[in-house]
Structures are given as C-alpha cells and as structure tokens.
Design a protein that fits this description.
The chain is an alpha/beta fold. It contains 8 helices and 17 strands. It has helices at about 15-25, 40-45, 55-70, 80-95, 100-120, 165, 180-185, 210-215; strands at about 5-10, 30-35, 70-75, 125, 130-135, 140-145, 170, 225-230, 235-240, 260-265, 270-275, 280-290, 300-305, 315-325, 325-335, 345-350, 350-360. A hairpin with a 7-residue loop joins strand 13 (about 300-305) and strand 14. Helix 1 (about 15-25) runs parallel beside helix 3 (about 55-70), helix 1 (about 15-25) packs across helix 7 and helix 4 (about 80-95) runs antiparallel to helix 5 (about 100-120). The longest helix is centred in the first third of the chain and has 20 residues, at about 100-120.
Amino acid sequence: MAGKKVVVGMSGGVDSSVAAYLLKQQGYDVIGVTMQIWQDEDQFTQAESGGCCGLSAVDDARRVADRLEIPYYVMNFKREFKKNVMDYFTAEYLKGRTPNPCIACNRYVKWESLLQRSLEIGADYIATGHYARVEQLSNGRYAIRNSVTAAKDQTYALFNLTQKQLSHTLMPVGDYTKDEIRAIAEDIGLMVAHKKDSQEICFIPDNDYAGFIDRECGEMVPPPGNFVSVDGEILGRHKGITHYTIGQRKGLGIAFGYPVFVTEIRPETNEVVLGSDKDVYTNRLYANQLNFMALPDIEEPVRLKAKIRYSHAGSCCTVRRTGADEICCEFEEPVRAVTPGQAVVLYDGDYVAGGGVITHA
C-alpha cells in the first residue's frame, strides 16, 4: 500500500495506537489525528484514564505518534459533536427514548466529518481502533464483519456507516484479540499498552445522565409524574421520565415487596409504566432510520440474527418490510427490554446485514 495515505483517529488508547502502528507496518503513509470534541475542557482534565475525549487523550496520542514517527494533528469537531451527539442525546431522552450516542458519534463525527476533512487533505482512507473488520463482498457491497474476538466485538455501534464511508475505511485491529493488541503495544514500547478502556459516555464522565440533561435543557425537562401499572392504576410518583429506561429495576424509588421493572415510558402523558419481569419481554419490534450493508435492501421476509443492544448476544428473527423506512423483526423466542431509541442490528452470519433505530415493541 505504498503511497496510500490514511488518517488514523487516535484517542490516546491502546487500540487506535496499535492501529496506527499496524498500518505503518503495512506500508501506508499514516497521519495521526485526535478529534477535539469536548465542550468544557475543565470537565475532562480529571478523566486521566481511558477517556477518549479528555486533554490527557491528546497528550497520550501525541506521545504515541512521536514514538511511531508519524505526523500528528488535533482537529476541532466541537460543533459537529455538539449538534449530532450531545443535542441528539438530550432530545431523545426528552421524548422518553434511550439514545446511543456512540452510534451517532461514529456515523456523523468519526466518519462523516473526519472522513470529509481527511479526503480534503488528500487521504485515501481513515482508520480507527474498532474491533471489527471491513470487507467488500462478492455482490460488490462493503460490510462490517465481526472481529476475531467475540469479547471485544464492536460491530453493533457501526451498523449505520454508509457504503462510501466503508469504502474509505480500514480497521486493522479487528484481526486481533485485545490481549494480542496489548502485547504488540508492549513489544514496541508504547506507554499506553496497559491503559484502561473507556467505560462511560465521554461527555458524561460521572455517568449521571439525568443530571446532565437537567443542566443542558433546564425548563424543557419533563417534571415528576405518575408511575402507573400496565392496567393504568396509579402506583406512585416518579422523578421525571429522563431518569428511566426500559427494563430498569434499580433506582425507581418505589417498593412493592417484589421486583418491578419499567416496561414503557409515555412522554405524552408523562407516565412511567411498571410491570413484572414477564411484561418486559416481547416477540416483536419495529425500527426505522434504516441502513443496509451486506444486503442492499429487504424486499422479502428474511431470517437473520438481531442484536437489540450492545451487550445482547443476538436472537434469531424474521425481518420484513412494513413501510418505506420501517421493518418489523419477529423473534423466535421472546427478547427482553426492547428499548425505543436503541439500535437493532441485523447479522447475516459474521456480517452486518443492516439495521435501524427501534421505534416500539
């Protein structure tokens, strides 16, 4: 790949650092870039371990770039991140939905914005440290393929990348396990070889989603309302719908002497519905905002495996079209806590066939 230029999104972590090293070893002309997306620098100066957006990420990424002897830059994507990730995140919670900001960030910041800017400076590809693989199939389409390690597979968060984006994307880490990546980093003397992985949403380091929404949205935040049963009986008062998500049991602030779970959030009436564990299960979901990868489209019913959240192992279902921008997934066995706002990602074997955003169960 001599002469091919690739911009590597470097978060300061071990995965993107080794991705840059592997691509340089393969003969690419590698440029390291950290995307400046934080809105309040003081908020992140204490995120010293694992964060992908803090000032420490820039320091670590720059040291790695120096060690690898590659050019390194910081690019400002604050505006894109605020609009497409932070504002989207708060808007979804105000609607009683549970968003996935990492998916939005991947699609609209790490790929759309970074790729566009990279192409403008003459790059052929962008690359990341995701545990996934990009392949062009026999039908000519590009698709995300599972990484070699199920423990770190990150294909779920990449389902909505476009064909153009995939054709300009490299993911070298997907051919390795996490232990192998750390071993490579240690062998070549990278100081981030044993750096912790980021666990929380980068712009909410304290993990207090409701507090963040309160600060961002002020008077727009829905007030306290009623907990109700699946039959409509008023059971008590909730703190506001932004404090809850489907399937939640802990932190409800109400006790019955037996377990209860959030089964539905109704923003139109400001109600949170509580039920038993069996009430959280369903055989069917609907999704829109569709994106297809391995499959060009779904015209006839097709049997695929679906993941309804990042940690979901996947369940077999029949997928059929129900509208111009809607599919229905009917599962062979009931699935738990189908959550509006989250993604349903469809797999054909090891490959991402497509997916969408869950609207309702």
